[in-house]
Every structure is written in C-alpha cells, then in structure tokens.
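Students often ask why we bother encoding 3D structure as a string. The short answer is that it lets us treat folding as translation between two languages. Here is a chain of 298 residues written in the first language.
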Amino acid sequence: MDFLRLLEGIRNPVLDSFFQWITYFGQEICILAVICLFYWCLDKKFAYRLGFIYFSAGLCIQTLKITFRIPRPWILDPEFHPVTSAVPAATGYSFPSGHTQGGTCLFVPLALRSRKFWQKCLCILMFLAIGFSRMYLGVHTPKDVLTAMAVSLFFTAIIWKFGDSLLEENRYTKMISVILLILSCLTAFYALLLFRQNIIEVKYAADCCKAAGAGLGFAAGFYLERTYLNFCSRCRNVSHLFQRMTVGLLLTLALKLTLKFFLGDTLLMELLQHFFVVLFVMYGYPFLFTKMKKTPLQ
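And here it is in the second language, the structure alphabet:
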C-alpha cells in the first residue's frame, strides 16, 4: 500500500487519462480482437498459441482470485482512493491482476513473434506499462501485478516452447483440446462449489464461469477447425482483411447480444454465452467464409 500511496501523490489529470488509456490494452475485448485478427486474417498458427496462452493463464488467474479472495486496495484501506474512472472495470478480487495477465499474454507473444528490435522493445514496454497502470490507477497492488505477470510468463514460456511441435502434428489435436477442456471444467466446478457453500458471491463465480466457457469454446473450436476445416487465414490484400474482420466482428457482436438476450445472466447461461461466442470465432465464422469460397482451402 505504501507504493500505491506514493503513486497517488503524483496523480494529475493528464497522467490519469494516459494510464487509463494504457490499461485498455489489457482488457478482454482488446486481446480477443487481436486473436481474431491473426486467426481470421494473418497467421492462424500464431493465433492458436496466443489463444492457448491467454485462456490457460486466464483460468489460472480466476482460480487464484477465488482461492485467496483478496479485496481491492480501497477496501483494504478505506483512506486510499483509486482513480474513479478505473473502478467500473475493476471487477472481481484484487489478486492477481486480470488486466496485467491479459496484457502480458498479448504483448509477450507479440514480442517473441516480432523480428525487429524496436517492435520487441515496444511490446515489452507495453506489457510493463499495463501492469504499472493498474497500480497507478490504484486498483491493484504490486503483489497483484507481479503475480499475474509471473503466471502469464510461465504459460507463455511453456506454450511457446512446445507450441511448434504440438501444433504441427494433428495427432496432438485431441490431447490439447481435452487438456484445455478439463482445465475449464475444473475452474467452473470449483467456482460453483465455492458459490454453493456461500464462500464467494455470484459475481465472482460468474467471472470464473465466463473464463471457463471461453476456454471450452476455444478447445472445441480448435478441435473442430483442425479436424474438419483447416481454413486458410491469409487474406489477399488489405481490403479483403478489412472486410473479413469487419463482418466477423459484427457477426460476433450480434451473436453475443442475441445470446445475452435469450439466455439471460445466470451462471450456467454466462458459461454458455462465452462458449458459443468463442466457438463461433474459432469455427463458425471460418466455416462461413470458407464455404462462401472467399478464400481457398489450404
């Protein structure tokens, strides 16, 4: 808390706005948009790695959150005040930081993929800046941020090291899918168990169910795409890329809103919503544009 109070003392409107902007790069919608860009349009193999890193680390982070159940800094110390604009997005428990996990899982793989030194430096700077922004805004402690970075770097190192060999061989497709499926189910079961025992509130269980649903959708979509579709992610030109991304994101948003309207927001329905949305991203939309013959099969 001493470090957070130090940062609180140097706040000003310009820095508040800057770090609020930086922290957006760690939000779920930003990471998913980048995954969609690579998966649909640029480099499907890299998108697989990015997805497995992000969803696996996310499941671990959510499990740690409901296990340790550490409140936010302003709850631990009522005299401490976060930046007001950052509070609405600061859902769930404080430890570890979900935004830091998202930023690390996005920018560290991008740094590893980049060939130019300045690109690597920019990506490293971004994930560090996202972590710092969470502390500057007063919504996380250094322990929250550093733990999230450590977890994310661990999953990044493991998946990056073995990703090539596992993704090159179709015989590993089912095994990889089953592992992520099991991790997702265990996270959901653990959250529901704690909720039924009145240990955590429904909003915290909902965060875990959303992460589990997304993990299940990614696992199912990965298996279906690798087994039955194997589409080409390369776009012919920038115009084709823009068209494919725009249509895909609009359809995904429409599906999300439709599911939310009809399914509601119970824990099971939250899980199903995220499952179907990610499944559509991974298999449904590629199936549509492949069958419409906008791109050739690999």
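Translate back mentally: The two ends are 54 Å apart (CA to CA). Keep this in mind for the problem set.
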